[in-house]
Amino acid sequence: MFSTKFKKLILAVLLLPELALADSLNQANTAWILTSTALVLFMTIPGLSLFYGGLVRSKNVLSVLMQCFAITCLVSILWLAGVYSFIFSDGGDLQKFMGGASKVFLPGIGVDTLKGDIPEALFFMFQMTFAIITPALIVGAFAERMKFSAMLWFSGLWLVIVYMPVCHWIWGGGWLADLGVMDFAGGIVIHVNAGVAALVSAIVLGKRKGFPNTAMPPHNMTMVVTGAGMLWVGWFGFNAGSALTADGRAGMAMLVTHIAAAAGSLTWMAIEWKRFGKPSVLGIVTGMVAGLGTITPASGYVGPAGALVIGVTAGFVCFYATQYVKRTLKIDDSLDVFPVHGVGGITGSLLTGVFVSSGLGGLGLAEGVSMFHQVSVQALAIIVTAVWSAIFSFLILKGLDKWIGLRVTVDEEDEGLDTVLHEETGYLDL
Asked: pTM of this prediction?
């Protein structure tokens, strides 16, 4: 009744249902972004929580875990209530500067609604995990001395006033995107933005009691290394997931991420070994974070050789930035957020404009765009983001200080934030 060719066609369609989904839902991409979303959330809780929690003194460990957990919850609700919409929806005449309100609380977004070839609900969730970790990074700058209420207000206001517009300008089709800025996974949107806010926070709040004369070593290095390992693994979702596809670009992003992390670790370790006589566990994991933060903006554009150079550069630059901020400037950025994330993000974003060149193993610049032009665009985006973050972080902090106060008292700081703010302790013997 039917020809052989027709029967074969019917069989092919039955066996390969994805053919019927061409130009619609891509199940492979969807599966990968589902995985990446979980990995990026895993970076904040438990990864960053444990990393930061181990770095502070034992009397403040729960306060840091609580801050990361609470930020996760707060940002999730604010993301639904409008932050996502004002970044990723059409802003009409204001598109260059902000999105619109059409997706506040996601009206009309159902299980079949797509963003590209993945569900929009999944894209919403994936981008939300980036928004969660950004203010959580800033926690490390004011650890052990900020009131919990002030931290909540600062994180929420900072997300709306600082993160939301910068993210739109670069990832939401805003004016920096029109200029051709390259920020694959958040070197500028996340690391420069949060790093500058961290520096401002540390300056406005002032030093912890005893800094820099009193030693304040990490209370639990096992916890630090555990959290660092979770960050390393989770970062594959952060960078490779930003391809939004399960393809060769995602694979290359994963590879260069790993190479930069390894190179940053070994470089930091080698500097410490030569300078202080022994390599430290804290140094090697901090070098890893520096390598990861520095490769983030470049991860979708460079090759393995470029990643190696970027990772080594991260180890050197971030190590000496840490020494300069703490020992020369004597700024108490408690967990080195600015010298690691801020300086790393700046370095990586500039080097993206260099190593994207096809002659250096990258994907290549757009036709008619020179390396000098691309680096200039990168520098402009860094400067604009840094200035915006610095000004509004300062204003938010100063406003909160006048309204509810930022810091706990000296006596409360001595006792520890766990007991003072949460009536709990991290360890039974305290």
From this structure: 0.93
